[in-house]
Automatic annotation (TrEMBL), chain B:
Keyword Transcription regulation found: no
Subcellular compartments: Cell membrane
The entry's keywords: Membrane, Transmembrane, Transmembrane helix, Transport
Entry keyword Glycosyltransferase: no
CDD domains linked: TM_PBP2
Start and end residues of each ABC transmembrane type-1 domain: 63-279
Biological process according to GO: transmembrane transport
Identification of the protein by name: Sugar ABC transporter permease
Length: 478, 291
């Protein structure tokens, strides 16, 4: 038997097996859905590419197979939370599925808002899809588990906030020569804060000298939007070794140095001063930039490097309708202070933000069983690759190896490799049930630091003190 | 007696709707304002705390700062809208080529949702991208950055509000001017009154009810401005445009500080009523007394 014949036969056998498996799962969805025919599931989520894919592609497929209608409402981040929380708080049962961003899961769990999906499937094994297995998920799913391991959300998007740089600028011989002459080293993605600052200053000056709209770095530094606060606490402070917003949960939620926290530690102050300097040499729109606008700034070719949320990496690198830097995007790990990388590798720290979200089922839902079916449907390994291509998110491990994902990985400068291999160095938001409450209490001080009304060091002292005051008022700090 | 019953029957739907959507929510907010309630606190239950919330807001610098910038915003926005609206109304009272076209164009902002107005102004004012900073830089060398300059942000929100709401004032005053009888004006002209005298002694007194009604409406609207400012500046830079509506939004929604947020809402309602009453006393009551 020739090798070619054997390969063909194997391929045919695999194809038949796969077809049989698909047919089996299709049968499951039809049979499981039959009892819910006519039911309409309502979901609310943030309007992002992964959510839009659910709305436009996965929901119609699910309806076709099961007969269960699905209406997904995609809206702004604020509106999404406003609607979901009001519904769950009042127990009205409007929504059968809600988007849970990683940083709010702890608040939801503390209020018992969500259905334990693991338990629901254990209680009703007839609802369990043959191809659903919690072991399929990447470790990001762990953020949506309680201490007993119960899963409260089906991960549907996961990104890291990474260091993007312009490969065309970094590889330009003229630019390289000028950089080497000035700094005595080769131009390469920064590994330290000092290197990052040098590169940023270099390109900002280059832009000025050439009369071009080019700056050295992005800065997510809106003076009235929480995005700036998040950039500092989640993406900048950790690279200086300040973790969990500088709050020590194990020490009575202390924030001030004198009480055992680190929000106003020397490292935190150094981090803030470093970032404020970058803000000052970033494009002028930075003071009005949130997470979306920094991506737009990068895509417009106005900066040489920046910290960008991974959900934007794909369109920046590949969509010519939206980006002027297609094919010229490189990815790297963010610069860190001495000892931080070692701490991240040993699991004692982290170097940046692992962002993402899941679909959860409110306990107030009137259609929990049908929603459990839908949750499993979007978790199937078979639907993940196309979803990852449409929106660069991976929550199921096998997706990394799909040919179409590998192809996209190349055009993204190895983003998916970075996510798979180095994702462990990043961390989601700390497990606090008071994220938004604390943020809103102290962000006004942070905004005043940004406008220069308060000195950075004094501002961090005020923020740390206010944090302890607020957590005491909320009853978390005794 | 029969007609009385019929009257109540006809009024009933309105009273029910008003009760359900006006009175009941107000009573609920009033009740919540006497409680400490944050569903994401360690104790998520409502805890009665008497007047603590009201006592707290007297010393809350965030609230006081918010209140003062709001009053400044209301003063500048409503005054400008009134003056500009009257000038435009007078202009539209005269015939000129393209009058109907201009009148239609000038009312377009009125039909836009505030959130859209905020988006448009954000696009127009974002540094490096917006047309307004670009023009100001080209013409006057002025670097407009509403993300950095508190004054620039404040002025921009006032201008945005003027752009959005002046047409309402214009339309109200056009309606009032059109309805004025011609006799007093002809009589005044015959008597040799100047234009200024006619304005102060005939036009203004005769359109005063329309002016007061319009100012009431605009005052109440301006005091509760939220959407467009939230979209344009987010309340920043710092707290420069954190008007009271934005402050309440942030307290009640992201911070879920329901008790304290309700107390602030109640106080703002009281302030709104107080300002309107002062306006009434200043503009309407003296006239009624004279009569």
């Amino acid at each position: 038997m020739s090798i070619g014949y054997r390969i063909s036969a194997s391929a045919l056998a695999l194809g038949l097996a796969a077809s049989a498996a698909f047919a089996q799962t299709d049968d499951f969805w039809r049979q499981a859905g039959a009892q819910f025919e006519g039911v309409t599931l309502h979901g609310v989520t943030e309007s992002t590419p992964p959510s839009n894919y659910i709305k436009d592609v996965l929901a119609p497929q699910f309806t076709e197979l099961t007969g269960i209608n699905v209406e997904i409402e995609t809206t702004s981040w604020d509106q999404m939370y406003d609607k979901a929380i009001k519904d769950m708080e009042a127990g009205t049962g409007i929504y059968d599925m809600v988007y849970i961003e990683q940083d709010i899961i702890y608040s939801y769990l503390s209020r018992d808002f969500l259905v334990n999906i693991s338990q629901a499937l254990a209680d009703k094994p007839e609802l369990k899809a043959p191809n659903f297995d919690e072991a399929n998920f990447t470790t990001f799913a762990d953020y949506f588990r309680d201490e007993d391991g119960g899963l409260y959300g089906i991960p549907m998007e996961a990104f890291i906030k990474l260091y993007l740089y312009r490969t065309d600028l970094f590889a330009d011989p003229e630019v390289q020569a000028a950089f080497k002459e000035q700094f005595g080293r080769d131009l390469a993605p920064a590994k330290t804060h000092e290197e990052y600052t040098q590169i940023a200053e270099f390109f900002t000056k280059l832009g000025q000298d050439r009369g071009e709209d080019l700056w050295g770095t992005t800065a997510q530094a809106h003076t009235g939007h929480p995005a700036s606060w998040y950039e500092y606490v989640e993406s900048v402070a950790p690279t200086f070794g300040v973790y969990n917003w500088g709050i020590n949960a194990e020490n009575n939620f202390a924030a001030t140095v004198e009480n055992g926290g680190s929000m106003n530690s020397p490292e935190a102050k150094e981090a803030l001063r470093w970032w404020l300097h970058l803000r000052d040499i970033a494009p002028p729109e930075s003071s009005a930039s949130t997470w979306s606008e920094t991506a737009t700034t990068f895509a417009a070719g106005r900066v040489a490097q920046g910290l960008i949320y991974g959900e934007n990496a794909a369109w920046i690198a590949s969509d010519e309708n939206q980006s002027r830097v297609v094919g010229n995007v490189g990815v790297a790990l963010p610069p860190v202070a001495e000892g931080v990388m070692e701490a991240a590798e040993s699991g004692e720290g982290y170097i940046g933000y692992y962002d993402g979200g899941a679909f959860g089922i409110p306990v107030s839902s009137q259609n929990q069983d049908a929603a459990v079916l839908f949750a499993q449907f979007i978790a199937q390994p078979e639907v993940q690759a196309q979803w990852a291509v449409a929106a660069p998110r991976i929550t199921v491990s096998s997706t990394y190896d799909a040919p179409e994902v590998q192809e996209l990985n190349t055009s993204l400068g190895g983003y998916f490799d970075l996510l798979r291999d180095q994702g462990k160095l990043f961390a989601g938001a700390p497990p606090f049930p008071f994220h938004a409450q604390l943020r809103e209490a102290i962000s006004p001080i942070f905004y005043q630091i940004l406008t220069g009304d308060i000195e950075p060091d004094a501002g961090l002292d005020q923020m740390a003190a206010k944090t302890e005051e607020e957590l005491t008022a909320l009853g978390y700090r005794k | 007696m029969r007609s009385n019953k019929l009257g109540w029957m006809l009024l009933a739907p309105t009273l029910v709707i008003l009760g359900l959507f006006g009175v009941v929510p107000f009573i609920y907010v009033l009740w919540v304002s006497f409680h400490q309630w944050n569903p994401f606190a360690a104790n998520p239950e409502m805890i009665a705390n008497g007047a603590d919330n009201f006592r707290q807001l007297v010393f809350d610098t965030g609230f006081l700062s918010s209140l003062s910038v709001t009053l400044a915003f209301v003063f500048f926005a409503v005054t400008s809208e009134l003056i500009l609206g009257y000038a435009l109304a007078q202009a539209f009272m005269k015939d000129f080529p393209g009058k109907a076209f201009f009148r239609t164009i000038h009312t377009l902002p009125l039909i836009m949702a505030p959130i859209i107005v905020g988006s448009i102004w954000k696009l127009m004012t974002t540094p490096s991208i917006g047309i307004i900073p670009d023009l100001l830089d080209s013409w006057f060398g002025y670097d407009l950055n509403i993300g950095q300059s508190a004054v620039a942000a404040f002025v921009t929100t006032v201008v945005m509000d003027i752009w959005h709401w002046t047409p309402l004032v214009t339309l109200s005053l056009i309606a009032a001017l059109v309805a004025l009888p011609a006799d007093p004006f002809e009589q005044a002209q015959i008597d040799g009154a100047s234009k200024r005298q006619i304005f102060w002694h005939i036009t203004l007194p005769m359109i005063r009810p329309a002016i007061v009604a319009t100012v009431f409406i605009r005052l109440m609207d301006a005091l509760r401005v939220v959407d467009e400012v939230l979209m344009l500046t987010g309340g920043g830079p710092g707290s420069a445009t954190r008007y009271i509506g934005v402050h309440i939004f942030r307290e009640v929604f992201p911070r879920t500080n329901y008790g304290y947020g309700s107390a602030v809402s109640v106080v703002v309602l009281y302030i709104t009523i107080l300002v309107c009453w002062l306006l009434y006393v200043g503009l309407i009551a003296p006239r009624n007394n004279k009569a």
